[in-house]
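Hi P.,

Sorry for the delay on this. The queue was packed all week, but I finally got your sequence through. Input first:
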Amino acid sequence: MTAAVLYRWKLKPGRAAEFEAAWTEGTRRIHQACGSYGAILHCGEDGLYWSYAAWPSEAVRKACFAAHDWFTQDCFQTMQACIAERFDEIPLSVARDQMQARTPGCDVPVLTTDRLLLRPLRQDDATALLPALQDADTMKYWSRAPVDGLAEAREYLAGSTRSSTVRCWAITRPPTPDDALGWVVLIDRKSGVAETGYIIRPDTRRHGYVNEAVRRVLDHGFSALGLRRIYADTDPDNAGSIAVLSKLGFVEEGRLRAQWETHIGVRDSLIFGLLRSDWCAPHNDQVDGRAGTVSTD
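Then the structure:
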């Protein structure tokens, strides 16, 4: 069941602008990492700040805060420094949702390759993608454990379908455009820079679909979007993903030790980068990875 939380704060004098900027950045990070539905910040006539944050479920919210030490991060520390008094949180269960859907700021155009049609990912793609999201081997190096069922899969995909900073393409074949084989994502990180990730269903591996789909998305990122840099963050033991990145021309730039606390333990991270100046015309190498880097969680 969709969950929500109400927060209230009284701020120190003259800290409103600083607090609002830190709240915005913190909310963005939580949304991207955990697939929350986002939040709204209000200021009352009495000067109190109220925030309404919505989540796919209370379990997803608790798991997010258990997996991430948010309050050691700079934006959350800034928020704390601006607060004079914090009031108790009010947990809620959403009984009816009549809020108008917001049009994502990101344009996700349909892209094509010789064999594939890449279209915007939809929440109802959860049914087709469930075999990937429930597969222990596919999800081993992912940013979360396998999902429990279809409802959890739908909730998880919401983070990639309701965002103004995430472009996510479902990988499909033209004869069956409703059958999502996997996805490729571009996540806006800063001006001119995006992060990519990808996943593929177990039954469609070894056909070169990931390589072909990611190549097309990279081309779109560098040409249509004008990105100067696209990078990927992957587990050092994820040989399939590393093979994809290497074939596409990504350069291994560094290793972040103990970067992620995941369902298989604390893991290092390898960063692979590709610059627009590195990018060359597509070729016919066919490599397929089991799973990609991070999702938009």
